[in-house]
Amino acid sequence: MASSRLRVAVIGAGSAGLCSARHILSRPLTFEPPVVYETTGQVGGTWVYIEDPRNDFYTHSSMYRDLKTNLPKEIMEFPDFPFDPSLPSFIHHSEVLKYLEEYTDKFSIRPHIKFNTRVVSISPVIGDHEPVSWRVTAKNREEEVEKFDAIMVCVGHYSHPYIPEIEGLKDFQGQVMHSHFYRYPEVFSSRSVVILGCGPSGVDIAMELSLHADQVILSHRGPPLTWTPPGNISMAPPVVSAAPNTLVCEDGRKIQADTLIFCTGYKYNYPFFASGAEHGDILDWGFLEGEDIESPDLGKGHLPPLYNQLIHARYPTLGFIGACKIVVPFPLVHCQAQFFLLVLEGKRPLPPPELMLSECRQQLIKHRASGLPLKYLYRLGLNQWEYNQWLADAAGFEPLAPVMRKLYEVTRDFRGSDPLIYRKLNFKILNREEFEMYMDETKE
Ligand code: FAD
């Protein structure tokens, strides 16, 4: 007898994919065990450190040797699976990988993962207007095709470096790399290094390099630093052009540099959605054509139109778990995965597709008015807490504890005011509303 339970494919076994699988497995009456496709040989995604990155974006993450988390473990953790409480608040990346491996085993996810299997194509099988199922083609040694009722896309967005256009860059004779390929600072000994971008990776890598390089120049457009960096770190406006031995900044300043490191973030990339109507036009925003919105780069954008940054506005059985930016990822995907599964179970009705598309359109108009680039369309920042609360209220599951937002804000303020010392902080959550904190003077 055919099963009436839903079959869901989970693409990726990083934190988002593992969390999605865990929640599918906890609903055995409605869902068959998931099929989790993972292109590498292990779980963990971002948190798998590969010492020797090959020039293949899929086989390594951006993790560098000495990275410690920039969020305390007390808010990074999934609400139903705590980190080892004996660990300090800011931990080495290997502890996060260990945690994700333990999560995998605790919720018996591993038997459902197809390792070394890359999804190469996903397309809807369209019935009367709606997709009745999804066809997933995956490649291990050979290609295999399977059908599913729903898809949870959990491939992350830290694998495809974004490199801004810099005039004359190909003539620059120094070393050019993206932070995706950075591993440790010793190899930059006695060099003059320009870091373009002053986000968390730019600042962290500058600190690491300052112990070995001759000089480190943080090139960025942001406001002046509110903290005093080590003596061999200086600031410069963004690099806009290059000559064989020089990098030229926006204000005309010329820098003699040995190395340029792009800490300029990443692009979304969903190569398994082919373009064209026969593949469902998943990444297509064509519904905006003829509208009074300027959308010159939408055709090139690789972002799908998502209702509530989560569900494809035309295909409600296609969920994107963890596609939002500037968030605390594990608790966020914990909420998104549950919301999406409750939708699939029919327990949380969605508006009709016309309305979801219209909401996407409104979101885009608002975003355009903000002047921010399209890649930040799904950036949540401080709004993530209302968003998580909305998901929980709308679908009826336990919301995140309010203490998480408080702890997030304290961490953000400390990190902004002094990135040299914030990792010495330790937190202890007392209850859903309160936490304690103290500075550990003994640690480096
Ligand atoms: P990923 O971890 O990227 O996992 C995606 C998985 O999908 C990978 O295993 C990949 O192999 C697989 N995959 C991709 N394409 C396919 C395909 N076609 N078929 C099959 N499998 C596929 N977050 C924090 O909370 N705290 C921090 O301190 C922190 N520090 C960070 C530091 C760096 C340098 C970076 C890059 C990120 C950091 N993050 C941090 C964010 C981190 O990425 C998230 O915590 C989280 O791990 C993202 O999980 P994910 O599952 O969405 O994506």
Question: How is this structure best summarized?
Answer:
The chain is α/β, with parallel strands linked by helices. Helix content is 23%, strand content 21%.
What descriptive keywords fit this protein?
five-stranded parallel beta sheet; alpha/beta; binds flavin-adenine dinucleotide; 21% strand; 444 residues
Topology:
Elements: E1 8-11, H1 15-25, E2 35-37, H2 73-76, H3 93-106, E3 113-114, E4 118-126, E5 131-139, E6 143-148, E7 150-153, E8 160-161, E9 175-178, E10 192-196, H4 200-210, E11 215-219, E12 233-236, E13 239-243, E14 246-249, E15 254-256, E16 259-262, E17 266-267, E18 306-307, E19 311-312, E20 318-320, H5 329-344, H6 353-370, H7 384-395, H8 402-417, E21 425-429, E22 435-439
Parallel strand pairs: 1-2, 1-7, 2-3, 7-20, 9-16, 10-11, 10-16, 11-12
Antiparallel strand pairs: 4-5, 5-6, 8-17, 13-14, 14-15, 18-19, 21-22
Helix pairs in contact: 1-5, 5-7
The structure holds flavin-adenine dinucleotide.
The site of flavin-adenine dinucleotide has 30 residues, from helix 1 and strand 4.
What does this entry look like structurally?
The protein is built from 8 helices and 22 strands. With 444 residues, the protein is an alpha/beta fold. The model has no long low-confidence stretch (mean pLDDT 92). It binds flavin-adenine dinucleotide (FAD).
